[in-house]
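Here is one chain, start to finish.
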Amino acid sequence: MLSEEDSDELAVGAGDVSDVLADVSELGVLLAVGVVSLPQADNSRAPDAPSAARKTKGIRGFVVLTISLASPCWVTTVQWTCDLRTGLRRHRELFTRGKAIMTGFSHQAWQHTVKLQHAMSVHPFNEELATGTLSRERFQFYLVQDARYLVGFGRALASAAAKAPEVDDVAFLAGAAHDAIVIEREMHESYFKRFRLAETDLADIETSPTCVAYSSFLLATAHTGGYGELLAALLPCFWVYQNVGAGILKRQSPETDNPYRPWIDTYAGDEFEATVRTGRAALDRAADAAGEATREKMLAAFTRACEYEWMFWDSAYRQEGWPTAALR
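Its structure:
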């Protein structure tokens, strides 16, 4: 049995729970707050004090908090069981972290492009990818374009690494450039083997106008833009794929035999989500150090990259060709 001293140490003001509710209403959605063993109120110490200021004592209290931070792409569910004091301390740490994320430049940029994000999530390419009904021809066309795009994307990432002012960001961006060229290419090649596509088959698929335009936009930004603007142009490629992949994964059932599951798992996985978080943090730091004019350029670059992402899905679905091909 707990001593009175132990109970006093664990006592929590009733107003603390109100603070939790206020925090959550500011940031996100409160899913559950529960006290498994509810302490008895001790009103004898300060009978004239307001109820919110009175202390609780008696049985050790255990609290379970499940909080969803309502960022469109960064949704975190946190659950713990502990004594009330520790639970409230952890809540405050989570609240502080979540507030920093949701007030950063990257969150504002995502909100600015929320219509584009939704349009990509419900695009026929991704809807059919989710159900496994996307035609093999469309997915093949997409893979070829993506493999070629990633070469330019990797070069732009390498340029961003060279511009980065912080060593950790240099390492992150250089590593991302390596992964874009090596790791993601391995996934493409696994599908090429699965579809029994030879090099001659791939060469017959011409690089689409959208692929050329998107790659050229990134490389032009790398050559003419500053670090923050380039980072803003690069982040959507990570973030959009993670958002789309995570959304598709939620709709998958264990018994579903989706031929595109390896693609879905790659971009919906924890490792890729961590990459997005790191990229967002780097972008937020760059924005914090930038003036208003640079931040406007960063937002424009982020928005344009999101537009190109939508165009890339759409061009793959249409298997876009050059309208001038017959005039050559």
